[in-house]
Amino acid sequence: MTPGVRVHFTACKEKNRSVATDVKVAPGGTENVDPEIYEAVVVQPINEPQPGERLYPGQVNVVIGMVRTNLPFEKKDSTVTLLKNDLVLINLLTDIVTEKRRATNIKPKIPATFGSTNEIREKGVIFSLNESEGVIKSNQHDLLPFDPKENFSDIEFTEEDINEEVDFTVIMMKGGKHAVRLKRVKEPLLLTLCCSSSDSQEDKSASNDNTSKAPKTRSITQTEVPPNMVLDQELYEGVVSQTIIEPKDGVPGYPGQIHANIGPIKTNVTFDHRDCGVTLLKNDHVLINLLVNTKTNRRRAANIRPKIPFTFSYTKETRELGVISSLGSEEGIIKSDQHGEIPFDIAENFSDTEFGDRDVGKEVEFTTTMVMSNKRAIRLRRMKNMEDQILLEQKKREEEERRKQEEDRRRKEECERESEKKKEEVAAALAAAKDKWTPLGFHVRVPDSKYEISKERFEGTVLRAVSRTLKTKVPEDKEAAADGPALLKVKIKEEPMDEKEQEEMQDKEIKEESGA
Fold it and tell me: Polar residues bias: where (predicted)?
């Protein structure tokens, strides 16, 4: 298994963890498609093999970088029959495992390719049509079968196209003559197919208006889902193959076309001004959702978002610089050294956030276009990203929170230092007073005494003071000395007592005598 290969698998639980089982390579899982579009020429079309022969791939000649080379292509890489010398647009497909390359998503350049192939184009009317096959009625060939996928028009063929005039090319196949490379003769008649019934009335009134008007201000919000339409939330990549053509002088306009890869199917979907807030140019690389009509199953692009800034390299537009001089509710003015003051629609915004008063005086890049013979700026983009106000407030709150936490931490450290300092001072004081007399008497013991001094504190009055140094008197009488050790006489200093204390002492002595 090579990194990058897309697979299908079944997830299961094993010992409190998720494990992928039944892993299989998905269809096309080893293929990587380069989104860049290359111009190429078909040098070898795919020819139907004779019985017993193998089917050989076709070849296109293309310049990739500075190298001109031939790339093979298979039948599945193009929905239509390709002829020799066809002018086509292709993507480059690389197999991740084998590293082989081939052309894919091949789309002829209409109508330029008809002049290169020298094919004979004929006209006819669609006689019958279903999902898998159709029949064209022609004056020269009568009834000719065709595949509905052989479609050079911008919109897919449906049963509503019966009796529609088309032009085509005739080729010989095993079953006889077949019509290929079909294209509607009157493409504008089918513009309303891409819209719902309610929207088609608006398009009709717009097409009947003979006055050329500038497009209305486009909303930059998401596309509203009309009745009987379902929004597919999945994102698809696409390339703008046809820009919107505005109605002019009574001639109805064309919708835009996006060539998109919708799963395994490569097809064109339509879009109009409702589906994108900015002007799209040819070859714009975009991301889209799909709006699907539940009744007719028709699809159109919605919520179109250009891939900024990569799309600028494909459109080959000229980007210019200017400064926003004023902003209104719907329009603004850009001041440019080359063009002076140019108006712009405020919805023509390629930046991440909407334009506001803070953008006045800020530099932007833009593209110029002509609307009703007047220059207008489109596809505006800030040169320096403006930070969202909500993000600024959030950052400010985070800074305040960090500052408070830092102050709390600093105060806590100071308290801890002061506490440690006090503990050190107390420890030093205790160490200095360890061998000294203290009023509490915790460290005082009577020498050679077995008595412990109680730590409990009592209140009392000193009646007599005793000297700390005991004085002994040597007996003069040797006889007394021989009999035994003489009693120590201690001289006690007597303090004079007042009458009350004397009475208390006398009462105490009387009680002791009576008790004895």
Answer: 208-225
Beta-sheet pairing, 265-271 with 256-262: antiparallel
| CATH number of the domain where residue 346 is located | 2.40.50.140
Q: How do residues 133-177 score in pLDDT, each as one tens digit?
A: 899 999 888 899 999 888 887 677 877 788 889 999 999 888 788
Task: Looking at the structure, tell me whether residues 277 and 362 fall in a common domain.
Answer: no
CB 162 within 8 A of CB 128: yes
Indicate if the alpha-carbon torsion angle 204, 207, 212, 218 is positive or negative.
Answer: positive
Quote the pTM value: 0.40
- Tell me how crowded residue 255 is: count the other CB atoms within 10 A of its CB: 26
**Are residues 288 and 334 located together in one domain of the fold?**
no
Burial string for 438-450 (b: 16+ CB within 10 Å, else e) reads eeeeeeeeeeeee
pLDDT tens figures, 318-357: 889 999 999 988 889 999 888 889 999 888 888 877 888 8
Contacts (Cβ under 8 Å, ≥6 apart) of 332: 324, 326, 343, 344, 346, 355
